[in-house]
């Protein structure tokens, strides 16, 4: 694509039918060796990210997933191995399988164990990118359980007072049901910002805002391009943990949370952790996951819990917004409203991503169906 | 005390024997109606905070605890009531009891259930300040378990895009054992800073640094005194969540974590939550807690886990420090080193706190033993 088209393609978007987009991704995955069930699930998780307004974890990643399948970073046709199992726990070795199907298997096992015993846990080692963590945590909601999902990722974050990337963006997802309110669904990385933001600033040649990242000497990173280059070589510098540089605004807390996720996803699962997890330009490195579910009625009636959740979340939502703000949200509210909108109007996908999908499909003879309104161009969200 | 002495008394400190300081607090609690066991445990938790370098949660709070016992906010001589119990869970109603003893009972129950079943959980409603959350999470360590403790607190934090204090500082503690390295012990509030910092700046008449707090209209709070006054009336304004104002640096993540703690501590326990939790000048309001423990060998051999923890934590500790920094820590390392130092040299207590303790003891005929070196004055840590 000509450089002159870049701006237009990334700034405009179109709407595609969720079902058609999912079927397309499924068929691409099948063409690269996934079986029908794994392909369907993997596609559903990718498209859910776009539908929920998190395009960084959506179909834009399809080419990288395909790259992983082609290079063998992601192994098609392998079955996860059970390392250890108890009435409450399941420890799986994914043996390099696609992340989403083995993660769904693990979360389903945690939920089934929780149904029988009250609580269930599952770890997965030697896995791949599993999409949005919220997908798995939310699986607990319909069972009147609280759901938790975490994963470690390639090292991108710098410890408080440090200079080297020693942990990933290590997300935490936590879901709890309500009755009339939408469910509370927290899904957050434990770094201040994401790697993608550094990349965008590096490409645009803009200086980095304060509070995002540390350079290779532990100072505030300003030059995005040199930081990005250094991070890609693991030569020093990286993202601040949530809370920023040093301890003044709680950067040590984000660092602690990221390490907690690494302990549960990397150490408890028997996978690697910390600085040993790397991505490459063509594929994401292997990672470990942690899942948990527990029944609300271990403590009190689930209906009473949901009613109190309505009060808590309703009061947050109704609390007065600050100057220049229109609403106060709670975690998951904005995402589910976007998902409602996507169900009505289609899933918003940036034009440049649509073009990449069409190209990816063409390589294996899979055609992307036309958008809900391919002629209408919308500003990118 | 004369105003001229204030500076000296808050800036200097002395060392007291941990055992003698604990016995003193125990005897004060007994004089106010706690039984011997509850008084001993409550004193131990308070002094542990000072020993670990967290004086905000230490013996400086003794007068407020005593105030609670005198006004009946903290009820002496009541027994917690079991609301619900399963093989994995215990839901307690503290009925206004002292926070530490009922919290220890709850964490001990979670550990005992985990020993039998793999995992154990406990909630406590209608309780009081329980001290440092790490105390309870760390109880799991010697059992080769991972320990978790949380509590909600009086509303001090403002939601992302909001203006009203709708949640507390809501700490999360998470402890996991290692072999040669010290245990990983995260204990963090989910707000950017603590209420105490606003109070200090208000007293000193200093403008608030950026990133700490929101004023009653949702703007960056600058005037500490007016914010403090407004917060005390719950008239608007309060602490930013971890990650600061808005979403640019992840403030919505800290807000989400604070709400998660409120869901587990306030909603799941059947206690109150959010804006309904208030402190008064003389006593801290009632709160709810959440505790969990689970066996590491539900997933893999605990000895292998501890060995990998050594690698993870050792690599973090050995990672290169940034310019102007001498060391990289992991969560809990600084605190345990201070505890080692306190075991050798005594617990450091600020002179003004020592004076308050002496006065509090004198009211009930309990004498604070002399310090390890009462003549030596040290700069306050």
Automatic annotation (TrEMBL), chains A, B:
UniProt keyword annotations, A-Z: Oxidoreductase
InterPro entries the UniProt entry points to: Mal/L-sulf/L-lact_DH-like_ah, Mal/L-sulf/L-lact_DH-like_NADP, Mal/L-sulfo/L-lacto_DH-like_sf, Malate/L-lactate_DH-like
Pfam families for the chain: Ldh_2 (PF02615)
GO terms, molecular function: oxidoreductase activity
Keyword Oxidoreductase: yes
Family: Belongs to the LDH2/MDH2 oxidoreductase family.
Name of the protein this chain belongs to: Malate/lactate/ureidoglycolate dehydrogenase, LDH2 family
């Amino acid at each position: 694509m000509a450089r002159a088209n870049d701006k237009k393609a990334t700034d405009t978007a179109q709407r595609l039918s969720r079902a058609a987009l999912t079927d397309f991704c499924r068929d691409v995955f099948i063409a690269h060796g996934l079986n029908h069930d794994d392909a369907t699930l993997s596609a559903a998780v990718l498209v859910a990210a776009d539908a929920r307004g998190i395009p960084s974890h959506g179909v834009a990643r399809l080419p990288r997933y395909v790259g992983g399948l082609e290079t063998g970073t992601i192994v098609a046709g392998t079955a996860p191995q059970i390392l250890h199992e108890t009435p409450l726990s399941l420890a799986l070795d994914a043996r390099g399988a696609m992340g989403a199907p083995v993660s769904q298997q693990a979360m389903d096992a945690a939920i089934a164990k929780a149904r029988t015993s009250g609580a269930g846990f599952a770890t997965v080692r030697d896995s791949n990118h599993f999409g949005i963590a919220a997908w798995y945590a939310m699986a607990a909601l319909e069972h009147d359980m609280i759901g938790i999902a975490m994963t470690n990722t390639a090292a991108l974050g710098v410890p408080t007072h440090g200079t080297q990337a020693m942990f990933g963006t290590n997300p935490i997802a936590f879901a709890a049901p309500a009755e009339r309110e939408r469910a509370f669904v927290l899904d957050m990385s434990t770094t201040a910002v994401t790697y993608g933001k550094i990349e965008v600033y590096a490409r645009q040649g803009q200086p980095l805002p304060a509070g995002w990242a540390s350079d290779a000497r532990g100072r505030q990173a300003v030059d995005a391009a040199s930081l990005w280059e250094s991070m890609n070589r693991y030569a020093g510098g990286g993202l601040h943990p949530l809370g920023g540089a040093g301890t003044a605004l709680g950067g040590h807390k984000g660092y602690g949370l990221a390490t907690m996720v690494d302990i549960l996803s990397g150490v408890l699962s028997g996978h690697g952790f910390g600085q040993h997890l790397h991505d490459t330009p063509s594929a994401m490195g292997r990672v470990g996951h942690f899942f948990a579910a527990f029944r609300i009625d271990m403590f009190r009636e689930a209906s009473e819990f949901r009613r109190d959740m309505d009060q808590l979340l309703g009061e947050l939502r109704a609390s007065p917004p600050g100057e220049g703000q229109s609403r106060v949200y709670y975690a998951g509210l904005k995402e589910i409203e976007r998902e409602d909108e996507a169900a009505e109007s289609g899933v918003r996908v940036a034009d440049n991503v649509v073009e990449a999908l069409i190209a990816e499909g063409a390589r294996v003879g899979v055609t992307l169906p036309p958008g809900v309104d391919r002629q209408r161009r919308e500003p990118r969200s």
